[in-house]
Amino acid sequence: METIRAFLKRKDIEISLRRYGIDALGAMAQGLFCSLLIGTILNTLGTQLNMEFLVTVGGYASAMSGPAMAIAIGYALKAPPLVLFSLATVGYAANALGSTTLSGGAGAGGPLAVLFIAIIAAELGKAVSKETKIDILVTPLVTILAGVGLSAWWAPAIGTAATAVGTFVMWATDLQPFLMGILVSVVIGIALTLPISSAAICAALGLTGLAGGAAVAGCCANMVGFAVLSFRENRWGGLVSQGLGTSMLQMGNIVKNPRIWIPAILTSAVTGPLATCVFHFEMNDPSGGVASGMGTCGMVGPIGVYAGWVADVASGVKEAITAMDWAGMVLLCFLLPGVLCWLFGLLFRRMGWIREGDLRLD
After folding, report:
1. 205 CB neighbour count, 10 Å cutoff
2. Is pLDDT at 106 greater than 70 in this prediction?
3. Among candidate residues 242, 201, 4, 224, the one with its CA nearest the CA of residue 108
4. Pair 48, 138 in one domain
5. Are 143 and 77 in contact (CB under 8 A)?
């Protein structure tokens, strides 16, 4: 046992929740952002501005989501160069096969398959890296064969499972929009602020429709909410870094005083059912749900909602983009998160639950 531990330590193979559930998942979200999300943004802009070049570039970027996610995961796992480069093939295979189900239909488990399979392939590649004199052959072969083999074996089942879970969440949201609006909004909003990836979760489940809209509302409640709630401590820099960046910046302060999170959570519990029951706010972006977990980060959430409207109008599902649609976006993504979180925060400051400096970012 000691020999195995020494080997794993020498290879920097750390089997832990932090390494796989936080570092790898967070890096995977960045890979998604730099491929599928950027591609969706460019595609939407190109379509609206009638610029075919942007549509083409967006298509290329979106097509590389699998390799981008796998390489990002390998980078987070500190994979050596030969392993890192080999993960491009693994990511492509896992994403492609995870996007199908066991029955051969379309699935939503591509990102989830990439996460599991790229981690295993990367660690196996790291284990054999520089252990032989023909490392340039052995390391890529082990990484690619293990990754593609696992993709063929596991990815369709992962696609089926992810699709089933996502379908259930969306079905339950349509059936019980009030209760599920609260649940989805709160859970995805919490995931956005935690050091895990809400975008990866939404992408893995293919969270669209009303459930996707509730997820957007929850993410915006945390991002815009924290940005406004902490304005007195962090001023304009904090407003931008949290409102357009990430509410994850507050995690250190949340650990010190968990009660500072309550205003954002309460806000998401209000805006979630408003999204599902009042505004019928849906996320049907072409990226398959990734933007549902992004909120106002780079304005990806609102852009994704708009891209969904455009796609629905083009397909005939939606007659036109209405004033109610725009009102819902403005209120749910910007105004209500800021106003409600500030009001809840004001109450908690007066109660002494939030003290001066509790929300200050270093």
Report:
1. 30
2. no
3. 201
4. yes
5. no
